[in-house]
Amino acid sequence: MEKKILLDTNFLVAPFQLSLDVFDELERIYPHADIYTLDDVIQEAKSIESGRYISLVEKLIETQDVEVLETEGEGDVDDLLVQLCDEYVVATNDRELKERLLDRDAEVIIIRGKNHLEVKNQQDYL
User: Fold this and answer.
1) Predicted confidence (pLDDT) per residue in 51-72, tens digit
2) What is the pLDDT of residues 17-56, one digit of tens each?
3) Rounded-to-integer distance, Cα 4 and Cα 99, Å
4) Domain 4-120 CATH class label
5) Distance (Å, rounded) from C-alpha 21 to C-alpha 98?
6) CA–CA separation, 111 vs 83, rounded Å?
7) Whole-angstrom Cα distance, residue 102 to residue 99?
């Protein structure tokens, strides 16, 4: 069963803030996984440092073949990610969101030591 990974905002901007190739690391941990993000996550990225990263994030999404999922209704991005954590492995470095996901026994990918990724609550599938 192929993994489906859902990226939070900080994972989309990490390649530009850190010397870390998030996508190489995701491939190392979960070879051939499908990568997704939410349209609301992209909107959130526009607000980081006055939109400094938005064109870079859009190009990254295109070159890395990240599928953008449309979100319906209003709501906090973190709430949406928590709602989807049963279907996806959520990649985030947001402390509060990470704790909410771990409280639900969700599988979470985090950035560790600014140079690699680590999985919390990794679940094996047959």
Assistant:
1) 778 888 899 999 999 999 998 7
2) 888 899 999 999 999 999 999 999 988 887 877 777 888 8
3) 20
4) alpha beta
5) 21
6) 22
7) 5
